[in-house]
Amino acid sequence: MIIVIKSGVPKNEIEEFKSKLEGKGLIVHEDFGQEYCILGLIGDTSSIDPKQIAAYNIVEKVIKVQEPFKKANRLFHPEDSLIDVNGIKIGGGNFTVIAGPCSVESEEQIVGIAEDVKRAGAGLLRGGAFKPRTSPYSFQGLRQEGLDLLKIAREKTGLPIVTEIMSADMIERFVEDVDLIQVGARNMQNFELLKELGKTNKPILLKRGLSATIEELLMSAEYIMAGGNENVILCERGIRTFETYTRNTLDLSAIPAIKRQSHLPIIIDPSHAAGMWWMVEPLSKAAVAAGADGLIIEVHNDPANALCDGQQSIKPKKFESLMSSLKEIEKFKWRFDISELGL
Ligand code: PEP
Ligand code: MN
Question: Record's PANTHER family (predicted)?
Answer without folding.
Answer: CARBOXYSOME FORMATION PROTEIN, PHOSPHO-2-DEHYDRO-3-DEOXYHEPTONATE ALDOLASE
